Structure formats: structure tokens, C-alpha cells
Amino acid sequence: MGRVLALDYGKKRVGVAVSDPLQMIAQQLATLSPTEVWYFLDDYFAREEVDLVLIGYPVQTNGKGGSEALRYINPFIEKFLKRYPHIPLRQVDERFTSKIAQRLLIEGGFSRTQRQDKGRIDRLSAAIILQEYLNAKKS
């Protein structure tokens, strides 16, 4: 059984999280620039067996896709599908993951400076996206 990788893709940063090989637990992995993500994925896919990649997809509260983020997420998805046709990619609702990440950092006792680290928030958001998927898969 391979791992599941999750991406919280943003205009400036990409949060990355990965499951354990049994696909039970998510852990934060990296924060990358949108340019670096391709080098990272090439290397990671060469080293690890990955069964699925999840990408946080902006969905409005009415359930429809739509935001400025789609202008850079959709081209990323198209390029991913061409570059890695053998790896399934699934879009998952990313609503409120940044707010949940902020709350978890507060509850975890992180300092204000640590909570303002946007890379930390992006990594944690990717882990939240992944853990929610893994939990739903178990049920």
C-alpha cells in the first residue's frame, strides 16, 4: 500500500502533507514555492510509492467552485495530470482548513510569532485535508 500525499496549493506557497504507508495518519512534510513543488514531486515520486494525491480545492459555502485561487490551481492540476498520468489526483474541499489550522496552533500553545508563520499554516492545512480524507475513508 502506498502513501497518500496532500497539497494545499497557494499562489505563494504549497503546503505538503503525507500519510504513513498504512494510510492512517497524516503528517506535515514541507512548505514549498509553486516552482519548487515540481522538483519536490519528481523526487518524492521516484523514492516513494504514492497511491493518490489530494489537492485542496476552493469551494464556496454554496458548494460551487469559485475564487481567484482557481486561476492558479486549475493550471497546476492540468500540468500535474499531464506530467504524472499514472498517479490519481483528487480535488477535495479545502474550506476553512486555514481557520482550523489557526485554531489548532492557538490550542497547541504556539506563540503569536509561530502562529503567523504562513508556511506552518500551509503545512498544517495540508495535513488537515489529508487527515479528514483518511478519517472518511475509514468510516
3D structure, described in words:
Helix content is 45%, strand content 24%. It has one domain (3-138): YqgF/RNase H-like domain (Nucleotidyltransferase, domain 5, 2-Layer Sandwich). The mean pLDDT is 85. The chain has five helices and five strands, in the order E-E-E-H-E-H-E-H-H-H. Helix 3 (97-107) packs across helix 5. It has helices at residues 36-47, 70-83, 97-107, 112-115, 118-138; strands at 3-9, 14-19, 26-32, 50-57, 89-93. The chain has 139 residues and is an alpha/beta fold. Strand 4, helix 2 (70-83) and strand 5 (89-93) form a beta-alpha-beta unit.
State Rg: 14 Å
What does the average pLDDT come to?
Answer: 85
Percent helix among the residues? Answer: 40-55%
- Uncertain segments of ≥5 residues (pLDDT<50)? none
What is the number of strand segments? 5
Give the C-level CATH assignment. Answer: Alpha Beta
As for the number of domains, it is 1
Cα-to-Cα separation, first versus last residue: 18 Å
User: What is the number of helices?
Assistant: 5
CATH superfamily: YqgF/RNase H-like domain
Main sheet properties = 5 strands, mixed
- CATH fold-level name: Nucleotidyltransferase, domain 5
State the strand order across the main sheet: 3-2-1-4-5
Structural class given helices, strands, pairing? alpha/beta
Q: Which range does the strand content fall in?
A: 15-25%
Q: From the coordinates shown, what is the CATH architecture?
A: 2-Layer Sandwich
Q: What form results from the Cα inertia axes?
A: globular
Written as H for each helix and E for each strand, in order along the chain, the element string is: EEEHEHEHHH
